[in-house]
Design a protein that fits this description.
By secondary structure, this protein is mostly beta strands. The protein contains four helices and 21 strands.
Length: 340
C-alpha cells in the first residue's frame, strides 16, 4: 500500500506501518454508530474520507485470518488532516440505513496513520487475525472509521465511508461462510390511485393493504387492478427505501428507490422526503437486462403535473408508454427487477 498526494504521481511512502492486530475476541456491538459522514463527524475538524474503486475481503477459517483490500481511500478535505483511521471488516444484523445508528461486530481491524489533506492511500492489502463473532447471519461491510472524540461513538471512531457486499455471511463457531439462505420469499405489491390527488401509491405491507381496502383515508385510495411481486427475503437482493412527503399538502406522495445514492442522498440532504422504512427487496439489472426469473419494474415521474411530485411503478411496458403519452417522464436508469 502506498500514500500519495493528489496530482503528484510520486509515491511519498513505500509502505505504512500497521498496528498489531487485536487478539481474537467476542466483540460486543457498539451502539448508535452513525453512517453518514455529515452526522458522524465534524468535517471542519478532521478529514473527509472517501473510498473509490473496489474493495474486497477473504476469510481463511483454517488459519483464522481475514484479508482486506481496497483500491483507494482519499482524504478529500483540502485543508484538514484526518484523524487516525481504522479499516474494519464489520458485520451488522440489519442493513445499514444512511443517517441512522447501527450496532456492529468487528471481524477484522487494521490501524492506519492519519491522512494529510489531499492525500490518499492506494493498493491497500493486509491480512489480519479473525475476531470471534457470535453465531448468526449478518450483512458484511468494509469500512473506513476515523477518530474524532466528539463523533458520538464510544470508541471515538466513527464511520466515514464503506463498501457493501451483497451476499450475507453466516458465522458458526467462529467460522465465516457465505450464507446460502433458504428459498427466497415473495409477496405482492398492490397499486392504488387517488383521484383527488392524481397520484399513484404502491404497498406490499399487508396491514396497509387491509386498511386501505377496508376504507382507510376516507376510501380515497382505490385499487387500479395492477399488482407486481417483490422479494421479502433471499440473497443478492437490494433493499428498497421508502420515503414520504407532505411538503405539497394537502397532496402527499411516496417514493421508492433501490439505488444507493438516491436513498442516501435523500436521507442525508432532503428536507422534503422523509425516510419511512425498507419496503421490500429487488434485484438490479446488468447491462439493462434483468436476471433470470425477474422482469423490469419501470419508474415514471409525473413531472409535477399534479402540483406535487409523484411516481408510478409498473411492470407493464404498455402502461409505461401510456403514462409517457400523458406527459410522465421516463426514469429508465432507475429500473429495477422484480420476481416473475
Amino acid at each position: 500500500m502506498k500514500l500519495e498526494a493528489w496530482g503528484l504521481g510520486i509515491a511519498l511512502l513505500a509502505g505504512v506501518s500497521f498496528a498489531h492486530g487485536q487478539n481474537a475476541m467476542d466483540h460486543p456491538p457498539v451502539a448508535a454508530e452513525t453512517v453518514a459522514k455529515s452526522e458522524a463527524k465534524s468535517q471542519d475538524v478532521y478529514g473527509f474520507l472517501e473510498f473509490s474503486g473496489s474493495g474486497s475481503y477473504a476469510v481463511n477459517n483454517g488459519a483464522g485470518t481475514v484479508e482486506m483490500a481496497f483500491d483507494r481511500l482519499d482524504n478529500q478535505s483540502m485543508i484538514y488532516n484526518s484523524g487516525s483511521i481504522r479499516i474494519m471488516l464489520f458485520l451488522t444484523q440489519f442493513p445499514i440505513v444512511p443517517g441512522q445508528g447501527f450496532d456492529y461486530w468487528i471481524l477484522a481491524s487494521d490501524q492506519l496513520n492519519p491522512l494529510p489533506a489531499n492525500f490518499y492511500y492506494y493498493d491497500y492489502f493486509t491480512t489480519r487475525p479473525r475476531q470471534l463473532v457470535p453465531d448468526g447471519v449478518y450483512y458484511i461491510y468494509l469500512g473506513a472509521f476515523e477518530y474524532e472524540n466528539s463523533c458520538g461513538s464510544t470508541s471515538g471512531y466513527c464511520l466515514d465511508d464503506y463498501f457493501t457486499f451483497q451476499s450475507q455471511v453466516q458465522v458458526i463457531g467462529g467460522n465465516v461462510t457465505t450464507f446460502g439462505g433458504g428459498a427466497a420469499t415473495t409477496t405482492t405489491a398492490v397499486e392504488y390511485y387517488h383521484a383527488g390527488f392524481g397520484h399513484y401509491f404502491v404497498t406490499a405491507d399487508a396491514d396497509e393493504i387491509n386498511g386501505i381496502d377496508g376504507g382507510a383515508y376516507g376510501g380515497a385510495w382505490q385499487r387500479t387492478g395492477q399488482t407486481f411481486k417483490v422479494w421479502t427475503s433471499g440473497v443478492v437482493l437490494f433493499d428498497v427505501c421508502r420515503f414520504f412527503q407532505v411538503y405539497f399538502a394537502p397532496k402527499s406522495s411516496h417514493f421508492y428507490t433501490a439505488i444507493d445514492y438516491e436513498c442516501a442522498g435523500l436521507i442525508l440532504n432532503s428536507f422534503v422526503w422523509q425516510f419511512e422504512k425498507i419496503a421490500f427487496k429487488v434485484k438490479l439489472p446488468s447491462g439493462g437486462i434483468c436476471p433470470a426469473g425477474s422482469i423490469p419494474l419501470y419508474r415514471v415521474y409525473n413531472n409535477g403535473m399534479s402540483g406535487a411530485p409523484n411516481h408510478r411503478y409498473t411492470t407493464s411496458l404498455a402502461i409505461r408508454n401510456q403514462m409517457l403519452a400523458l406527459g410522465f417522464v421516463p426514469e429508465d436508469a432507475n429500473t429495477v427487477c422484480v420476481p416473475v
